[in-house]
Amino acid sequence: MDSLITASARALAAGDPLGALKRVALRNDAPALALRGIAMAQLGDFSRAKELLRRAARAFSAKEPVARARCVVAEAEVALASRDLNWPTKTLDAARSTLEQHGDRLNAEFARYLAVRRLLLIGRLDDVEGMLADLDPTPFPPALRTAHELVIAGMAMRRLRTKDARAALTRGEEVARLAHIPALTAEVESARRVLNMPAARRIGRGEERLLRLEEVETVLSSKALVIDACRNVVRRGNTLVSLTTRPVLFALARALGEAWPGDVPRDVLLVRAFGARFVDESHRARLRVEIGRLRRMLRPLTTITATRRGFALKPRSRSEVVVLARPVEEEHGAVLAFLADGESWSSSALALALGASQRTVQRALDELAAAGKVQSFGQARARRWITPPLPGFTTILLLPAPLPDD
């Protein structure tokens, strides 16, 4: 490898893409194309980066499988950064296998971390834990060790284990200083800020209060009966009742929880659960049916009693009732939660992460765009959506991940 290629690679490793481009910008040989692609990715031009990396992979001969595999790994990193979650994972697995067979353990492990980060984005935390269990980051360079700690912190935040998250970020901050890459240090600082932002609203006894993530963890581990409007579940301790697929029942549970220890008039419940503007006997009959269903589902946690005006909650063991709600409630809050990371997402990637149909996500994006809350750029498959983060709020509780003991 010639001196210009070596100097360009060192510039990229130090986080200096412009310095790397100065050395290889006019060259079209395979190593130069690969380095130009990585530099363009660091500068944020992902489409150009993908094109250059594919050209580089084709330019390397069949006798250079390691170089080709490295280009595949680099393209996978660009795909992850541009939130192209449908990028073929089998191709990445094949590249990782090639690198392992030829003794390039460092890049092979980097490929593994890319797969782990993709799983973390779509909420497959059990798979993430399984892959991390086989990894020992000790011999890795500082940049890769920082990535390891960021993954651990992200998983801990999704699991609502804030002490573990803070410990991982402290380790990551120490290692990031050794890497001397400003963007990596900024990523750790950004993750740390999430822990100090309001993550939910606590509603109870006629009052509302913003809670940080660790305070949410405290509430969920307490003996209180928690009606969680971030996940549409009702829980106390390790006992959990999911109402994710029963929006009417959850609306009734939330209304009763917000009024506790008082009761809720029947007319108010009809509006909250059914949106009824004109109440007749059929509405009252349906309310009795739905209250009966809710009473059966919540029997392990609480009873629902009828009063002269309506209905009221009476938790077992005389526990307190707490309603947890999102800090900012939006109709398409889950979509905004992903876009709030500041990255550009395709509708297909959002659909994969949310577990929804692409058409459903597209309708949500169109409505958000009409309201001026999101913007798009590009056309057809290259179309991406982006929005600035909601100021002062974290979106951890909107992202897909099971609560503890789910």
Description:
- The chain is an alpha+beta fold.
- The chain has 3 domains: 3-195, Alpha Horseshoe (Serine Threonine Protein Phosphatase 5, Tetratricopeptide repeat), CATH 1.25.40.10; 200-325, Orthogonal Bundle (Arc Repressor Mutant, subunit A); 333-389, Orthogonal Bundle (Arc Repressor Mutant, subunit A), CATH 1.10.10.10.
- Helices cover 56% and strands 12% of the residues.
- It is built from 18 helices and 11 strands.
- It has helices spanning 3-13, 17-24, 30-42, 46-59, 65-81, 89-101, 105-121, 125-133, 142-158, 162-179, 182-195, 213-221, 247-259, 266-274, 281-297, 333-339, 347-354, 358-370, and strands at 198-204, 207-212, 225-228, 233-236, 239-242, 264-265, 302-306, 310-315, 321-325, 375-377, 384-386.
- The strands form 3 sheets. Strands 2-1-9-3-4-5 form a 6-stranded mixed beta sheet, sandwiched between helices. Strands 6-8-7 form a 3-stranded antiparallel beta sheet.
- A hairpin with a 3-residue loop joins β7 (302-306) and β8.
- α1 runs parallel beside α3 and α17 (347-354) packs across α18.
- Residues 389-406 have low confidence and may be disordered.
